[in-house]
Design goal:
Helices cover about 40% and strands about 25% of the residues. The protein is an alpha+beta fold. The longest helix is centred in the last third of the chain and has 23 residues, at about 155-175.
Length: about 240
């Protein structure tokens, strides 16, 4: 069970419990906090002893149990829900969740199912990301910023788009003619715009309709559709 520190200030953030054994002390502490073991950090202060013949001079076990911070609880929940979803899909996987600023980075490694989860141009991965966001948001009753990657696909895609944009920009500067990239979703168009926005010799703008639009790389002294460029950069 997850405990939200922000919505229940009547409960303590940590407790110290004693019992005959460490296990019993931990159970008592978890019950007082109303959480499960994955939501806390446990420190064994004293393992306890039975004393002479198990009767004389013994001491109780003592533990200190602290709630993980909210980001740790959220990361654990995202990892659990992602793993459960992939199990339902009969996909063996390892899931790791890290946090960067206000975004949770979900990394998935599979045993041969990367292509299935990624799909053509990352379409399946986009769908998986959308589904996880909805599931986590419903469970936690708040929106969570998440980026989901499988086998490092997104990072490789980012690097590929940046390299291609820089290569095409060089071609534009040499020829003085604009070039068009293949139709891209908004997130990938933004990568291209950002990759070239510091180059004063070229400018980028977007043409087309629908979710997939084309980024045009043009000489800086030509005409550009500033509104389309701004829309992509704002996403």
């Amino acid at each position: 069970m997850m405990y939200d520190q922000e919505t229940d200030s009547s409960r303590p953030n940590e407790v110290v419990e004693q019992a005959k054994t460490v296990e019993e002390a931990v159970e008592k502490g978890l019950a007082r906090l109303g959480v499960s073991a994955e939501d806390v950090e446990i420190e064994v202060i004293d393992e306890g002893s039975k004393g002479v013949l198990g009767l004389i001079g013994g001491s109780q076990a003592k533990v200190q149990i602290r709630l993980k911070d909210e980001s740790g609880l959220t990361a654990a929940k995202i990892e659990e829900m992602t793993g459960n979803l992939l199990k339902l899909m009969d996909i063996g996987s390892q899931v790791r969740v890290d946090r960067e600023d206000d975004t949770y980075l979900v990394g998935i490694e599979t045993a041969g199912a990367d292509g299935l989860l990624i799909g053509k141009r990352g379409q399946n991965l986009d769908a998986l990301t959308y589904l996880l966001k909805r599931m986590v948001g419903k469970q936690l009753k708040r929106n969570v910023r998440m980026e989901v990657d499988v086998g490092g696909y997104r990072q490789r895609r980012v690097e590929s788009l940046r390299s291609k944009a820089i290569l095409l920009a060089g071609r534009v500067k040499s020829s003085g003619k604009e070039v068009e990239m293949e139709p891209l979703p908004a997130a990938e168009r933004r990568i291209v715009h950002i990759a070239l926005q510091a180059d004063p010799s070229v400018k980028t703008y977007t043409v087309g309709e629908g979710d997939l639009k084309t980024v045009v790389i043009a000489p800086a002294d030509g005409q550009a559709t500033e509104k389309a460029e701004g829309d992509d950069l704002a996403r």
